[in-house]
Amino acid sequence: MLSPAETDLVRRDRSIPGLGTVLDPDAFIAALRRAAPAADPTAAQITYLRYKPQVYCRVAYRLELGETELDVDVRACRPEHLSQWREVDERPSPPGPLGPGRIVLEDCAVVLNVFPNDLKLPQLQHLTDPVKRELFLRQLLPDRPDLWEGELRCLRYRPERRYVAEFLSANGARAILKCHTRKAYARSKHNAQAVQSKGMLQIARPLGSLDSRRVIAYEWMSGRKLMDLCLAPGLDCDAVNATGAALAMLHAQRPDGLDCWTRVAESADLASLSSELGFICPHLARHADDLARRLAARLTGAPALHCPVHGDFSANQVLVDGQKVAIIDLDWACHGDPADDLGNFIAQTERFSLRGELSSSRVEMLRGVLLEGYARATKLPLPERIGLYTAVQLFRRTRFPFRAREPDWPQRTESLLERAQALFNALNQ
Q1: Range of the domain at 93
Q2: What does each C-alpha distance from 231 to 236, 243, 316, 360, 393 come to in angstroms?
Q3: Arithmetic mean of pLDDT, 173-179
Q4: 229 and 215 in one domain?
Q5: Fewer CB atoms inside 10 A, N or C side of the chain?
Q6: What is the pTM of this model?
């Protein structure tokens, strides 16, 4: 059942007639039963949501069919766009538990793709098929017969964007497999080799790639996720301090060929987010627009920097194993401002604090220990604009509560916006 805020959103966005269907699990199950009478889903859970107002809404669902779980990618679009999404891939889709692998709901302009059918990740049909997988892996890893047979465990799946899985062979050998879209593959393949391990900094080494399938295999990195250590009752300050030092080592490298995250692109991203947020939460539109403009003005006035940055750095992207710190997932690595990575990490802790999962004192401790480790490694003053980027990255997180379908998401969105404003105001005091 839709909340009052979601009901209002559906009422205002009449360009997407299926919006109410895909946002409401009960309505979605009812529509699915009509389209696939042989299937009888008993429950549906939203695992991911991406919404572009008045254009489309993509929802990843996990369905329960008896004792079986099934991932379904659902896209609600404008009626005039339905044909292009239906016909973009002329190859037949393998049937599955719902009957057809692709289902079109004409009356509400909704397209369903049942995993592993994916319009932009067709390689999933080969990788997830136990019969086809061995041949696939022989081509991907011709020198690693120990990784040709085994089990696949999905770690992260974003329909039509990326699939990440752990591969575990019978003899215990492990690897990470990533499937990319055509657009993202070249960048990810380059980034996989652009940054190198050095000292305590560990970067996952690519074991092989298959251009025809747009798949990259990486060595398995051991260690505990830093986020788990940050949320533990007793804080492991050494792990956080070492993470700061490892990040400094990444920033000190001079890789060639990375994309540039320019001041113009940063400002455009903030404006786009402000527009999205203003539509989802109309009562926050003026506040979001004002803050976005102020943040963009400060960024535009800053000098252009070309330091290698992770691009999505947070405690979820770090594995700590003793004195070794593995920084993973460099798909978004680029040239930019090093303060962006540091601010993003701190913004993540701020969000956890607003959710009641970290105390304000723990946030301050994490910030201090991380920056101390960073400064110790560089032996230089800390990058400028860490506070500014913390506000920027917290502002960017205002879309997360709605995307994650968090309880009371309008209130949580407003709390993030207010905290971003407070951090920005503190810069001017």
Answers
A1: 4-114
A2: 10, 15, 12, 13, 20
A3: 97
A4: no
A5: C
A6: 0.93
